[in-house]
Amino acid sequence: MFRLKRKNRKGYILVEAVLALAIIAISLVSVFGVKSYIARRKKIDLQNMKDINYMEALKNKIYYNETYTDFRSQLNNKVYITKENIKMDVLKDKEFNQIFISQEPSELPYISIDVSEAGNVLKIIINMRTEYKNLTTTLYKGD
Amino acid sequence: MILKRKKGFSLIETVLGISIAFMVIIIILDITIFFIKDFTFLKQETQNYSDIAEGLNYIDYMIKDRLTTNINVNGNALNIEQVDKDYPSAKNRYTIKQINNRVVVDYNSGTNNDIIKNVQGFHIEVKQNLAYIKVTSIKGESIERCFPIVVK
Questions:
Q1: Using an 8 Å Cβ cutoff, are B122 and B103 in contact?
Q2: What is the pLDDT along chain A (143 residues), one digit of tens a residue?
Q3: ipTM of the complex
Q4: How far is A4 from chain B (nearest CA, A)?
Q5: B150: contact with A, CB 8 A cutoff
Q6: What pTM, to 2 d.p., does this model score?
């Protein structure tokens, strides 16, 4: 029968040491991979929350602080809000005509606002396009 | 010369072995402590965000409640007036404000309940029919939301 010849040796051979190091390296890489995924996910979730709060504020501003006539002038015109203006402070301090532009921005994120009319009611569709998702909300504003 | 067959480890081997073991233990301990600290920080931060979001949801619920008849802002305090559910002729007045490190709902009867804990700042900014409420935790996390202050 075939028998392995083994020398009476002491210590580790190179393959064992390399294997041990490789196992430690793989474990560390996977642990730090998970860690970096969590950090990335956290950043995205925080941004999502901020975006949702901004959309809510924008919707409230249109609904409660703007008049029907103001928004009727935007009828059939798609207007956009650029990345620089997607901030709560800008929304608080500036008027709508100061933050709208008529050309579609090339850089994400941006918001598009589409106004259509049915009877005496304006249908306003607000859409936020970001790198990760699209957020859409619709509101109706009567005369 | 007669050479004895050596058994066991020499002193230098033992010292070297212990040193390597110590180094490995220190590295593992460092990594473990780093992860524990990071986890504790993340847990606290998530808890703070969650507390603030929940408190703001409560304010939203109170503002949009069908029993609400009047809302006004006085400095950094939000006053909400509601019809009593059981006695429609009676009015209940609530004030949402910051007391020390807490945001509370004050029932104007000598009692109040915490709605957000560990708060550093509670600021209300009114712009026409809207109130922008910004809550900052003691660790610096902040959430700002916009609420209508008109009853439709």
A1: yes
A2: 445 555 566 667 788 888 988 998 998 899 889 989 988 998 999 999 999 999 999 999 999 988 888 777 777 778 899 999 999 999 999 888 888 888 899 999 999 999 888 888 888 999 999 988 899 999 998 87
A3: 0.80
A4: 25
A5: yes
A6: 0.82
A interface residues, B as partner, C-beta within 8 Å: 31, 35, 38, 42, 46, 49, 53, 56-57, 60-61, 63-65, 88, 91-92
Exposed / middle / buried, residue A124 (Cβ in 10 Å: 0-12, 13-18, 19+):
buried
